[in-house]
Amino acid sequence: MAAVHIAGHPALDFIGTLSERGSKDVEELRQPQDLMQWFIDADVVDRPEQATEHDLAAARTLRASLFRALESWKRGEGVPDEHRLALNTASTSGQPRITMQPDQSIVREGTAQQCLGAIAASFLQLIASTDPSQVRWCADRTCTHPFIDRSRAQRRRWCEMKSCGTRNKQRELRARKTD
């Protein structure tokens, strides 16, 4: 799995684990191990516990609620009850454990449900503390990755320049050459 962590926020990156939403629907979380590896790559935990197919289904359901809630929040609408309640339930399902080892290193461990709880809670904190105009959808017509625009001019268009931005700039160049 080639996890992409470019959004500037773990919940937004989690939403992006389903790419090209509405067209190809490219799934990055194909099996329970993909989910736990994503949590490691996203810095949610260092040592995940084993995930199950049930955990994977719960993750996909939460991801759909995060996506719908983000859409509603960005439009200035209320989040539909179904998704609001799903986020609230997930955010109260616990958090990964953080412990100090004898060598004073810090280890974060947790179940898939605790990791999902951390993602849901971080999303709720995001919408409580961020202006919706700072969260954007990638301008690539096939990409459905959200991201936080932290650029000075607040004019960032692409989730990632080296993929979506380059692809679109090449497309625009080819269109100009054919005119």
Automatic annotation (TrEMBL):
SUPFAM superfamilies referenced in this protein's UniProt entry, alphabetically: Jann2411-like
Q: Where is the Zinc finger CGNR domain positioned along the sequence?
A: 135-177
Q: Cite a single Pfam family from the UniProt record.
A: zf-CGNR
InterPro entries in the cross-refs: ABATE, ABATE_dom_sf, Znf_CGNR
Task: Identify the PANTHER family for this entry.
Answer: BLL6575 PROTEIN
What this protein is called in its record is Putative RNA-binding Zn ribbon-like protein
Annotated membrane-spanning segments are none
